TrEMBL record:
Keyword Signal belongs to the record: yes
Name of the featured protein: Alpha-ketoglutarate decarboxylase
Top-level taxon in the UniProt lineage: Bacteria
Keywords linked to the UniProt accession: Signal
């Protein structure tokens, strides 16, 4: 009987929370992209979704895929991430923290190499409406593990 009452009250709590909070009205979808052509070809896409809290904070998740080709060497990077954003009031600055776990498959001269590495990006971007651009820095960057040339990377982010 106690379990039934607990289940019934939990059901009422969840129902009233979902009716009051309008969860999906606070979810934004979007992400970022990267493209580079020349001696090195790089194409990447990073879709994500974040939930906006009323105090300027947003939390969410994202996925990343990057294809890179330099001469006869190719790299495919797959990643999942947890994203936190803070919109500084009245300034137009967006601060971000993102933990990303990446898995890379590199092929060079018919030799395949698989690697995985974490990244913790801290960044700042100028935010205008739905669009933000800036820079971020990977504080966990390890030159021996990462497939990226630098711990710095640009931020190009948009949400709808």
């Amino acid at each position: 009987m106690k379990k039934f009452i607990l289940l019934l009250s939990l059901s009422f709590t969840i129902t009233s929370f979902s009716q009051q909070s309008n969860f999906w009205e606070n979810v934004r979808y979007g992400g970022g992209f990267t493209m580079s052509f020349g001696n090195q070809t790089t194409i990447g896409i990073s879709p994500s979704a974040v939930y906006d809290f009323q105090n300027g904070f947003s939390l969410g998740t994202g996925l990343t895929y990057i294809y890179s080709e330099i001469g006869a060497s190719t790299t495919n990077v797959y990643a999942g991430s947890l994203i936190s954003l803070y919109q500084v009031p009245k300034v137009g600055i967006q601060l971000s923290g993102e933990f990303e776990q990446s898995f890379a498959k590199q092929t060079a001269n018919s030799i395949n190499t698989n690697t995985s590495f974490p990244a913790l990006y801290l960044g700042a971007a100028y935010n205008k409406g739905r669009f933000a651009f800036g820079f971020r820095y990977d504080v966990l960057y390890d030159d021996n593990k990462s497939v990226y040339a630098s711990p710095f990377s640009p931020i190009v982010r948009f949400y709808f």
